[in-house]
Amino acid sequence: MRYIFEVFFMRAWLLHRQIGLEGMSLGELPDPTPGEGEVLLGVRLAALNPADRYLAEGQYPGKPPLPHVLGRDGIGTVLATGPGVSGVSAGDRRIILRGETGVTRPGTLAEKVVVPAASLVASPEGWTDEQAAGATLVYLTAWQAITQWPELPTTATVLVSGASGGVGVAAVQLAHAMGHRVIALSRSEQKSRVLREQGADFTVDPSGAGWAESVRSFLGRDRVDLFIDNIGGRAFNDGLGLLGMNGRVSCVGRLAGPVPDFNTASLFFRRLRIGGVAVGTYSNAEARDAWSALLAAMAKTGARPLVDSVWPFERLMDAFGRLASGPLGKVLVRVGG
Question: Which CATH architecture has domain 9-122+130-134+305-334?
Answer without folding.
Answer: Alpha-Beta Complex (3.90)
